[in-house]
Amino acid sequence: MSRNRRRKLQLFRVVVFILMGAFFLIPIGAMFEFSTRGTGLNSARTLSAWITIGQTPELVAAILVSLGLAAITSVAMLLLLVPTMVWVRLRVPNLSRAVEFLCLLPLTIPAIVLVAGLAPEYKWVSFYLSDSILTLAFAYLVLVLPYTYRALYAGLSAIDVKTLAEAARGLGAGWPTVMWRIIVPNMSGAILNAALLSVAVVLGEFTIANLLNYVNLQVEIAQLGRANAGVSIAVAVASLLFVFILLAILSFVGGPRSRSYSTRGAQ
Amino acid sequence: MTVAARSLVNTARRPSGGGRRFSMDWLGAVPFFGYVALFLLLPTLIVVIGAFFGPDGLTFSNLAGLNKGFIVSAFVNSVLLSAVSAMIGAVGGAILAYAVATGNRNGAFRRLVLSACGVLAQFGGVTLAFAFIAAIGPVGFVYVWLQQHGLDFYAGGIWLYQLKGLMLVYAYFQIPLMVLVFLPALDGIRPQWREATESLGGRTWHYWRYVAGPLLAPAFIGALLLLFANAFSAYATAAALINQGSIIASLQIANDLTSEVGLHQPGIASAEALVMVVLVAIVMVLYTVLQRRTARWLR
After folding, report:
1. B residues 51-90 near A, CB within 8 Å?
2. Buried b (16+ CB within 10 A) or exposed e, A6-43
3. Model's pTM, two decimal places?
């Protein structure tokens, strides 16, 4: 590339990053600013809003509940998807198209539509099973399918599952051993990837919880925002940073970078 | 193929399912299919069927009832909002993606930017809404600071809590989503194309107009459609920003799901949801078609 063109490109990149950086960082900075305001117009910065987080029982409960939901959803998703994907790959490859289609279907069905159909189901669930908010994990598992399927698929494609499985079986291993001791360790990057993605989605989910009248982290932030804006904004920015750190870890530690990235918002 | 290469004996294919006549292998996939049927297909079916059920059984009255002014305008607003935010997101995101793609592919900076895009694109419309309220809301520090310096952009009303405000806030997650979706296409550009253009005497304009532009066009339009579908389906951001009225379709559905009117007419919310899912499905089908075309040239 000619020197002139390279210089113009560099200038372009610097300008773009500064402008975009400003656009994206200013609101986040504003959240920090808002949550550290003292009372009165010119008073000193204070961390009282942040400290109040620990003293607001509804907020702590919502945080714990959301973390619990994230953990349950991740584990359940792995237990459902990994064996299924391995089994389909090895034994019933004709079904792989159907599995892929079903896993990507939640991208086409907006959460707001899904919840319209889930409402009657959850009436049933809360009556016959349990009305704990943790039952939301059933719905969340479906929501995270598109992202986690892609992550796990990338991991599965990177290893020669067939050979590994046949070799293990030939040495006398049963299916549980094959799954747990052979395949999972070879996919650990993709599994971590999928788990972190589902944690991020569950922590950010608002629509289904709100319309089914459960209180998770985002619902509590929204409700608290009307009463005590400083505290709820503090929690909001904290959760944003938490998920950012999770996804940053993922990009530095997780397996091969997925080539095509088709993601949809959890808004 | 020579005669010698062809087998003299017709050997049977390796039997599937371990040699049994009817393979039971598909049973292994039953847990997955059963679960998805129960928590994805069944709710969708409930919505579709519910759109055609009224208090007295099978009816078209729910769909006919969509013809009210405020419902139609909610959908029109949704289409408008989605189109505008998709355009803003597509153009802004393409520019940002180009800036990222031309950098070091394995660098830490690129990874950080992509992680940030992942967070903003996928996480919490509520959080984003609050971020904007904190920045340019009536007591946001940007607004207050500008007001102290003479510029009051809320002089004509607080547009943050109206459709225009939504367009701005939606850009906040549309641009990162565009980066995530469009970057693979930009990564697929080969330097050989540029070299070929130059060796044939073309310059930057020719390159973009005749080579890279047409090749990237399906990916760009596909991403634009994805952004449209994303904005159309979005609920949380609007719910957090708009306290009064249901000016877009998703707010209208939520309203009809939980309000008194909705309880008397359970089919209305389902009818609105049906319209929404049909529109989104059409857009997503077009997106998939364009993705296939893109994959041909740009891996």
Report:
1. none
2. eeeeeeebeebbeebeeebebbbbbbebbbbbeeeeee
3. 0.84
